[in-house]
Amino acid sequence: MKNQSKLKGKKVQNRTEWKKAIVLTAIIVITVAAFITIVQSESSSNSIQNEKAIGDFILVSNSILTESGRIVILFIGAEACPFCAAESWSIVYALAQYGTWNGLSPVISNATDSIPKVPGYTFANATLESSQVSFVEVELTSTSWDQKLQSLNSTESQLFREYDPSGSIPFLLIGGMYLHIGSAVSPYPLSNMSWSQCYNLSKSQNAFHDQVVSEASNISQVINYVEGKYLSSSGASSVPTYPAPELFLGDISRLR
User: Fold this and answer.
1) Would residue 168 count as lying in a domain?
2) Strand-strand pairing, 133-139 and 70-77
3) What is the pLDDT of residues 75-131, one digit of tens each?
4) Does the residue 184 lie in any domain?
5) If we measure between CA atoms, which residue out of 24, 51, 47, 68 comes closest to residue 159?
6) CA-CA distance, 166 to 113, in Å (whole number)?
7) Is 246 a member of any domain?
8) For residue 115, is it within any domain?
9) Can you tell me the distance from the alpha carbon of 78 to that of 180, in angstroms, rounded to the nearest whole number?
10) 126-143 pLDDT, tens per residue?
């Protein structure tokens, strides 16, 4: 069993045309009501090594990425990817404290992968209603590696290419500052489980539950830290704080 801090993501290039390259879109999308802004933090003149590391998240920039005043959280994954499925549990639980999920659906990763049939969530039709964060998702393929599902726009392509040149997923970039590639939640023990079995496992004390809670806490800490720096750089008089994330234990039907 691999140590969770050393779990690596899935390379998108490992199936059909994805084996050779990812063709990144170059279409620039400009909107007026909701636009992406890069804000320099107060410590931008300092070395990024002076910033603190949080869990497996590494600091890649001192510039803060926001959309209409909200911290941008960019997730790039694939429904076929077992590591994406495993990491999705922590993403769902962590972000539930910042808003309301809509359009989440259960998913089972690719059945013929080296780690087959890992239950998780797909974000393909999901939105997060939140005044604090803007969740942006790209599911590159369906549960079949051969079937392309969503494409990166020009901004997403630039970030993915700059910070993840090998094309590994899952890719989770928070506020343009902190990046985690791979999953802190091991997909191995989840392989070939039903979605309901995995969901029930998340509600009891076990290694899977502990990994989900730990990674959700890391995600929450990164968001709070980045938001604090953004509000400070914006001259806000106070910075909101949030409780530690708790597992979503409500009716499964709410997540469908």
Assistant:
1) yes
2) parallel
3) 999 999 999 999 999 999 999 999 999 999 999 999 999 999 999 999 999 999 999
4) yes
5) 24
6) 19
7) no
8) yes
9) 16
10) 999 999 999 999 999 999
Looking at the 3D structure of the chain, how many domains does it have?
Answer: 1
Structural domain of 27: 4-36+53-126+149-233
| Residue listed under structure tokens 């300092």 | 46
As a whole number of angstroms, the distance between CA 186 and CA 7 comes to 7
